Amino acid sequence: MEDPKSEVANPSLYEQLGVPIGSTQESLQRAYRRLALVHHPDRQSGDSVLMRQINDAWFVLSDPVRRAEYDRVLKNASSPQPTDSGFSPPQKLNRKAAWFAGIRLQTLRLGDEAATSATHALSNRHQVPRTAYEELVPPIIRVLGQNIELRVQLSRKAGAAPLDLGLASALIGLNVYCVPFLRRSLEDGVRHEDVLRAQLIDRMWDNLAHGINRDVEIKLGGNPRALRSLTGRRI
User: Fold this and answer.
1) How many CB atoms within 10 Å of residue 8?
2) For the ranges 68-82, 153-167, 181-195, which has the lowest average pLDDT?
3) If DSSP states are collapsed to H, E and C, what string results for 41-70?
4) Could you give the number of structural domains in the chain?
5) Residue 50 maps to which CATH number?
6) Does residue 143 sit within a domain?
7) Which of 203, 86, 79 is nearest to 136 (CA)?
């Protein structure tokens, strides 16, 4: 996802899939599959950066709720609102708002993918029903989607590359979620559910951090090691 500082206008998610706004879900799915066949990194013609953008677009537009939210942002971004003085704000401010909305949705997608992978792995490793972990995911993901503009600023300060801003923001959000969780658990007593949540946080962090520079990861706070903080053990 391009930086809003770029002079090049950012394409909408619909443009990234090559479909018009208002396309049916079937049309979106056909477009996604066609592009994925061409640009998947495993193919000779593949492009990992472009494939990530295509996946981001599909993640948002394939879900009716996320799509409706994006359409609302897109509509506001393309319809300048008058200020108190009667003049419309610069168009670039609307593009900036849409860009941050895109980063937020990318952060949510990455968090969701990390959580899905973590629940599968932890369920198999600890012989715990997958649903026990899945039930803990939604409140974590909600926190990942908060305060995106501030988290992007912190990510840049830590040295995250433009294409990694969503990933870095997710890591910051995970640490933000972890702090009050650990405090509450240590004050009120560690429950079995807390152990599962700590395992989930640690595994989600590892899944996310796999795609980012190690120095940047450390500057973002590093793995909170939630399980070790609660129990003194790492697994």
Assistant:
1) 7
2) 68-82
3) CCCCCCCHHHHHHHHHHHHHHCCHHHHHHH
4) 2
5) 1.10.287.110
6) yes
7) 203
